[in-house]
Amino acid sequence: MMASFLCFFCFASLFTLVLITSSAPAAVTAEEFKVGGDDGWRQPGSANETEMYARWAATVRFHVGDSLRFEYNNDTVVVVDKWGYYHCNSSHGISVFNDGNTVINLERPGPVYFVSADPDHCKKGQRLMVEVISLRSPPDSSPAPSPFSGAGSFLVAPQLVFCYVLLIAVSFNM
Hints:
The chain is an alpha/beta fold and about 170 residues long. The chain folds into two domains: about 1-25 and about 145-174; about 30-135, Cupredoxins -  blue copper proteins (Immunoglobulin-like), CATH 2.60.40. It contains five helices and eight strands. InterPro entries: Cupredoxin, ENL_dom, Phytocyanin-like, Phytocyanin_dom. Pfam families: Cu_bind_like. It is a lipid-anchor; GPI-anchor.
């Protein structure tokens, strides 16, 4: 009876291990975020709103592959370096947009800085810094490798050896 219990235990452990090693990672898709939520990209209306974009960005995790949608009227979006962001200076902007509906793809990890080209708007809080992380892996369309081939066999073999030795030990004790 003890041997059959151990055999069942070993089989269950091995089955669980095979399921874990054979499952493919879940595909994660890129997301598009509307900057500022429902308010969009605009000059903050009061002194209480000067940090509105910093608060908004703190609620979102940005990954490589995601994109930002800036919706605005009579304004601009300028991608700047860190200095341009902190000094509200867009004169050396990396990219300038003024179409009212700008989508910017986040292509690499690290901070990305945006300001309004109007220095007064920027000084009143119309600027955004996002930290882009690269935790998402791109979707993989190839099939998952068999758990019994390649590196997977190194994970299964110790379990099989352990179960075999355990069964032999129990058999001798009976």
